[in-house]
Amino acid sequence: MELLHLIALIAALLSAGLMAGLFTGYSYSVMPGLKILDDRSWIAALQHINRVILNGRFLSAFLGSVVFALIALILGLFLDDRSALPWTAAGLAGTLVMFIGTMAKNVPLNEKLEAAGDPAAIPDPAALRAETEQTWIRWNHVRGIAALLALAALAGALYTTGQVA
């Protein structure tokens, strides 16, 4: 049981780390880099990014961060030493904030951008950008911070197990 718990914690830690890197990378490089684009080019760039990110690597880390943290929490309930449980619960909470924020805020904005169709045919691309850009960026910051906090908490859980020094 301890080995399975350790494996789940490591998988949760790695998945949360991948998501923290992705979302914070968007915050400090991708979105500021795209800011210079005109409205139609900005919409086209986001549409393309949103299409290509839906792949097995992204989905494995995105879903894995929640699933592995949950598995680690459940397995931790069956251990004699439950000192990692608060850290694991905090890690799970962070991954849930990241996941729910993405699904409730960023995904609907991505869908709105996609539904607008060909950027060259959008009658008022400035209005669409104004409707989506700042909210998308704000919620990306939230999910990036949540993933970073989850990463830190899961590192705390792993350290608390005494399996790593």
Question: What labels would you give this structure?
Answer:
mainly alpha, 5 helices, DUF1772 domain-containing protein, 165 residues
Q: Which range best describes the helical content: under 10%, 10-25%, 25-40%, 40-55%, 55-70% or over 70%? A: over 70%
Query: What global shape is seen?
Result: elongated
Q: Beta-strand level of the residues, as a percent range?
A: under 5%
Helices and strands, in N-to-C order? HHHHH
Low-confidence stretches: none
Structural class: mainly alpha
Number of helices in the DSSP assignment: 5
Number of domains: 1
Radius of gyration: 18 Å
Cα separation of the termini: 20 Å
Residue-averaged pLDDT, rounded?
A: 96
Could you give the count of β-strands? 0
Pfam families: Anthrone_oxy
Transmembrane segments: 6-26, 58-79, 85-104, 144-162
Protein name: DUF1772 domain-containing protein
Keywords: Membrane, Transmembrane, Transmembrane helix
Task: Describe the 3D structure.
- It is built from five helices and no strands.
- The protein has 165 residues and is an all-alpha fold.
- It has one domain (2-160).
- Helix 1 runs antiparallel to helix 3, helix 1 packs antiparallel against helix 5 and helix 4 runs antiparallel to helix 5 (125-160).
- The longest helix has 36 residues, at 125-160.
- The radius of gyration is 18 Å and the shape is elongated.
- The two termini are 20 Å apart.
- The mean pLDDT is 96.
- Pfam families: Anthrone_oxy (PF08592).
- The chain crosses the membrane at residues 6-26, 58-79, 85-104, 144-162.
- Keywords: Membrane, Transmembrane, Transmembrane helix.
